[in-house]
Specification:
Layout: H1 2-24, H2 33-38, E1 54-57, H3 60-65, H4 74-78, E2 95-101, E3 121-123, E4 127-128, E5 134-137, E6 141-144, H5 150-161, E7 169-176, E8 181-186, E9 192-195, H6 203-209, E10 220-226, E11 229-234, H7 235-240, E12 253-258, E13 262-267, E14 273-276, H8 284-290, E15 299-311, H9 312-318, E16 331-338, H10 343-351, E17 359-364, H11 366-402
Parallel strand pairs: 1-16, 8-12, 13-17
Antiparallel strand pairs: 2-3, 2-4, 2-7, 5-6, 8-9, 10-11, 10-12, 13-14, 15-16, 15-17
Helix pairs in contact: 1-11
Length: 403
């Protein structure tokens, strides 16, 4: 009996060791929280402060107040989209030709022996505007040409010759432009530099001359750089808002680039992770569809959320209480909620437009959480039964050996 008691105790110890070992060998994808914290050289804990946000239930009124923030307008930054083409000034490196007319022969440029030849004019040899921006005209001296319209140059030459020539009239012609050029680069088929002609060059004209877009229009953006300033516009806005298609100025750079817009999806949706728009506009309802829809076995259709940062002005229009945020805080964390149990929620979701970097989250239903608890209880309650069975088997074996 003594040996039997000892054997039973030994068996119990073995079973306890097996149970403990089995707990430490449960499936894991990596080190758990305890292991990570135990091996950390130091730990900076949360200060306990909560990040404030605004929760907005999607409604018709809320939709009316939401304004999609497009990239900055190039028209607002540079103007120049209406009316006739601006004058293209003469620049350093341009080649100009000056023609001087006199009303009759015997003047400064048309000798008496020339007779009454048609026009009574003389054309000076072409000359390049020098580094100082000047050209030289006989009897008029140095004339500033750079940065001026040809009409202004003509007026100045005439004023300096009026007391020496017979009723002089001057025509200045730019025969070769080197300074009045614009550059188009980036996501276009044939990046190049083009001359701005007298008729003017608009943004779309320049992109067309560069071979057009090399990427889809719905993910293309256009940046105009002029001197030390720049502004960006969504390419399709150049089509839908003609005022954005402004005239270019010499020295401008048009940079076209592509940016794939996307959103993140988590929770009880059919798919998880990063999803690209692949279209110009994407509604919340379409985003749910691209994410694989809602999982019938898990999702709560009444709790579909979109996380984003909204301008303060938008939330003020909705009448949101923003007292929890600083008066100077312009960007407010916002969560929109739509109830897809309500048939009207589908129409609201179809009108709500997704934005780049939005987060779509579909909450689990209460039933799903209960099912998880029940499953966990079943797993835990099954473990003692297994251990008890193993103990009974072990006890029988020990009894067989000791008897």
């Amino acid at each position: 009996m003594v040996l039997r008691s000892i054997a039973l105790k030994a068996g119990a110890v073995v079973l306890l060791a097996v149970a403990l070992a089995s707990c430490s060998s449960l499936p894991q994808s990596g080190p758990d929280d305890g292991a990570i914290r135990a091996n950390a050289a130091s730990e900076v804990k949360s200060d306990g402060q909560k990040t404030p946000y605004v929760l907005v239930d999607l409604s018709v009124g809320a939709l009316e107040d939401i304004v999609s923030p497009d990239p900055s307008s190039i028209y607002a930054s540079f103007r120049g989209g209406r009316g006739s083409a601006p004058d293209v000034p003469v620049g350093v490196g341009d080649t100009v030709q000056v023609t001087i007319f006199e009303s009759k022969s015997g003047g400064l440029f048309v000798p008496q022996e020339a007779g009454a030849r048609p026009g009574n004019y003389v054309t000076l040899p072409p000359q390049t505007v020098n580094r100082d921006g000047m050209i030289r005209v006989p009897y008029a001296g140095l004339i500033r040409a750079s940065g001026r319209a040809t009409s202004d140059i003509e007026d100045e030459i005439e004023s300096k010759l009026v007391t020496r020539a017979i009723e002089p009239q001057v025509v200045v012609d730019v025969t070769n432009r080197r300074a009045a050029k614009v550059t188009v680069t980036g996501s276009v088929r044939a990046p190049a530099t083009f001359e701005v002609g007298p008729a003017g060059e608009r943004v779309l004209d320049a992109i067309t001359e560069a071979g057009g877009l090399s990427d889809p229009a719905y993910e293309s953006f256009v940046t105009l750089r002029r001197h030390n300033r720049q502004a960006t516009v969504f390419f399709n806005n150049l089509i839908t808002s003609p005022q954005e298609n402004i005239y270019l100025s010499p020295g401008d750079t048009v940079y076209v680039y592509s940016e794939k817009r996307s959103f993140l999806v988590f929770g009880a949706a059919g798919g998880q992770g990063l999803v690209e728009f692949q279209t110009e506009n994407l509604s919340l309802m379409e985003a749910v569809g691209k994410s694989g829809g809602l999982l019938d076995s898990r999702a709560d259709p009444g709790q579909v959320f979109v996380y984003r940062v909204e301008p303060r002005s938008t939330l003020e229009k909705m009448g949101a209480d923003l007292s929890a945020f600083g008066a100077t805080e312009r960007a407010i964390p916002t969560i929109y909620r739509v109830n897809l149990r309500d048939p009207a929620g589908f129409f609201l979701a179809q009108q709500f437009q997704m934005r780049d970097k939005d987060i779509l989250y579909v909450s689990n239903s209460t039933f799903t959480d209960i099912a998880k608890v029940v499953s966990l209880i079943g797993t835990v309650s099954g473990a003692p039964a297994t251990v008890t069975g193993d103990a009974a088997t072990t006890r029988t074996a020990i009894e067989t050996l000791t008897n």
